Fold:
Amino acid sequence: MKNREDYIPIPAKVVALRDETLDVLTLQIKPDEKVTFRPGQFFLLSVFNAGESAFAFSNDSGDIECSVKCCGLNTQAIHRLAIGDFVGVRGPYGNSFLDFIKGKKDIYLVAGGIGTAPIRSLLQHILANRNKFGKVTLLMGARTPADLPYMDELMALRKNKKAKVDVILTVDTQPEEGWKENVGFVPVILDKIKPKTKNSLVFVCGPPIMIKFCADTLSKKGFKGDQIISTLENRMQCGIGKCGRCNIGPVYVCKCGPVFTYDDIKKMPKDM
Amino acid sequence: MKIIVDKKGLLKFIDSIRKKYRLIAPVQKDEGLFFDAVSNTSKIVFDYINPKNTAKEFFFPIKDPILRYDSDSIEEVKKSKENIAIFGIRPCDARALSVMDKVFNWDTKDGLYDNRRKNALLIGFGCNKAGDHCFCTSFGYGPHESKDVDVMVYQLGKDEFMVLGVSKRGVGCVVSGKKASPVHESRRKELEKGIVFKKKMDVDKVYKKLDTVFDSDYWTGASFHCIGCGTCTFLCPSCHCFCMSDERNIRYRIWDSCQFACFTKHTSGHNPRPTQRERYRQRVYHKFSYYKKNFGEHLCVGCGRCTLHCPMKVDIFSIANGTLDINEK
Structure:
């Protein structure tokens, strides 16, 4: 991409907005130049006057989609965007989930809250190439039913017999009424669904504490470190290994990651 | 080619550089000695250990405008075509630039830095004495090292200077003068030998030791006095961390510091380096371990500015060297 060297973003327009939950917004962005990307990679979204921050792609192809939780100054500015607003994108950067999939594998997708965004990208890729994958199971959790993103899509996916994706949902605590799915933290439910180790890969995205307990659960079940794949989400500014803030030891998350196996993560110093 | 000139001849040579370059040299200001643009060569100071600021800010400015934006367009900020020449850069600062070249050209090139760097002329000035906090010889080079500059100048006597063209561009600049003899060269060697360094570290040993002491309690004590002001990183000739900031329709690239509390703070509130212990440890590891792992060279060059100007006198030399005395499992 020609603009990369000078940190100049590609001009882009917001073409669609969709509220996923009370504080998660999915944006569809059309850049002036075509951007091709792969699941797991990230890009930098500029809202001018607010700043530039890194987000995972939450779709597999076409216009860029990303889901943003309203947390800080930049994400507040993103939540104020309207259809037609001018933004900038820079990317794609980093490696992809697909780099870790060799051959036809059974796939477990484990997602917590806003961590579902990059998982959705991989899920879309799997659905578009369904015969290249074995059994696919999606486990998604959040604090409350209202915090579960992409619910319409996932309900449609559950009904779609051709997709053959097992969708399992959970929330942290028992809601008052009307909840017919699981209750419990994601690692607990992961333990309950008895994932099979043979010829399978587990992709875990979510809060660091959830990733840790999921990895522990899976390790106990006999999953090897290279079968557990996750993403690290450190603060980034440049995306190309120069600004110096995303490193864990000598590893720059933006360049060497953001996708790592649990084996890689275990080797890193405790600076996360 | 080596030539011998007197001070008048040297100033004439520096003046001739000004025709093609914007000249930067050490000049005295109210706040101390600084590298700054010079229009009159008689203002140049020749007797100093090191200016307060470093040469990096002429290639990687403190606040560098990148782009101009408005409600529906982005426009690149045109960079000045003027090339710069820096006179009086010490071997440590010149080496710091060579070391920084690696991170700025790490498979994705950084055009903002590279374009300034590739057209610049560096005129080094060998040291004849060491500062209290200098430890350049620990890194396998010395106060008369010339490989990172285009032209090298040594002061052999009160009114005697040896000028040496190093790079192709540098050789082209050095034109006339009395040829240096082997006597002059041995004089230079004598001067170099005569420099006394108070500090010397076995950096390879420190590099190996750092692999084993990451979780040590040592870092709590070592960083205890650090107040996280970031002075060390801003005066460092090789610290290269930055952030971006949008102000009044211009996006700037601005120096940032790993010593600041919010440097790594996630939007969620989680901070991978929550206290000064982790932040100071990061600086030591980046200088003496991580950079070498990625690029084969240490990011510290031993100029001593961080220690000299630290308001709390936190001494990176003693802290890095002190890791060798850690005895714990």
The radius of gyration of chain B is 21 Å.
